[in-house]
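User: Hi! I'm a student and our assignment asks us to look at how structure tokens line up with a sequence. Could you show me two examples?

Assistant: Happy to help. In each example below, the sequence comes first and the structure tokens follow. Example one:
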Amino acid sequence: MTNALLTTTLANAKAENRAALISYLPAGFPTIPGAAKAVQAVIDGGADVVEIGLPHSDPVLDGATIQTADDIALRNGIRIKDVLATVRAVTEANPTVPILVMTYWNPVDRYGQARFAADLAAAGGVGCILPDLPVEEADEWLAAAAEHGLATVFVVAPSSQDQRLALITAKGTGFVYAAAVMGVTGTRTQVGAMAEDLVERTRRTTDLPVCVGLGVSNAEQAAEVAAFADGVIVGSAFVQRILDAPSEDAGYEAVRELAAELAQGVRKR
């Protein structure tokens, strides 16, 4: 699969006059084999696109919930080969669902940029979200990604000035990840008044879909964001459902139910 699947999926959601539901779960959580089951559950619930996180020992942009999940995954012994195996298992079972890897830059750089791009594409992934890779330093990665048909999604924030937005969106492919609030990931009671303004400013610089994340945790918030964004990204709320569950199976059912609620929310523009 390539970036074309991601583009088509987001275009199909737009044609249905709704936002896409994009879910995030880290590989290796709650267990290495259980991660694919958790991702399958959110797909079964109605997720259009899935981001599989590559756990990192210093997840500086993530809040306590995802940090906890990353710590569990690392204690489970997660390696990049296991992340790629999770991608492969999910894509083989769901060939029409785009799967991206969300990762900090250091693991990719250490693994080898060309090698990572080739191995991700071979596993069926459609691209990467790289929140801490400066676009000025991204040319080698972008070339490797383009060679294998992978999307490169960059993150913009409410603090991003218009000139900076134009630079970032000119380099990115697939979609633009708009952080709804300043700060780390995590569920919030409000999704951030700055998000709509950020989406509007970003759209002035690009024709790429603009998808909003950081803070959405329920159907009402999903509907609120879906009113102005092309996609609604949810991560911490899924992770928290698994953390709170009394058993692994109960966790999978909990994220499936949440995905179904959110899938209804993104259709209530």
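Example two works the same way, sequence first and then tokens:
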Amino acid sequence: MTQRTALITGASRGLGLALAQELARDGWRLVLDARGADALETAAAELGAEAIAGDVASAGHRAELAAAVAGGLDLLVNNAGTLGTVPLPALADQPVDDLADAFATNVLAPLALVQAVLPALRTRSGAVLNITSDAAGAAYPGWGGYGATKAALDQLSAVLAVEEPGLRVWWADPGEMNTAMLRAAGEDADAAPSPGHAAAALLRLVAGRLPSGRYSAADLRARP
């Protein structure tokens, strides 16, 4: 059988790294992306993966990633993201330029990467896993900018699922996790579960090839 291939963005730490670790244990070929080259190279060496450091908001970097999986892609995980302005501001104080940058990373880059690797995904009837957040639908003070980017990603994911019925498209909320991003948001990350806890739940989507749609790690853990 052909070895399954996954491309994971933001894979040097947190949820991206946890997903890579789970897939590596299952024998997947991994192509990993992150902006920090040193941390990415360390992670890739431990997992026997290919590391391609760069910014997913860069068209040139996305072209490198697409070339690495041109032979066929079973799973694209759009995990790389940014909070935008920190400390998280009220919308009345939201710097619009910062919000534009957040949309570039959290919305436009995932869409552009999907476009770049669609031929490879179609070849394998592959899957797209877009990492979203409950902030996409809930009104949390300070989370308006970030939540708006995730709401946009949710909508793009839903339309992609309809337009590409041969693929699986999942947009999934991992819930709170003990990550640097949660700390940067000013939340108590130490009280949150590890990223590995969420990764194991989210990969039930892959293992069961569940229907396209929106999921949460909490709901996936509750499934029999």
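Here is something you could point out in your write-up. The mean pLDDT is 97.
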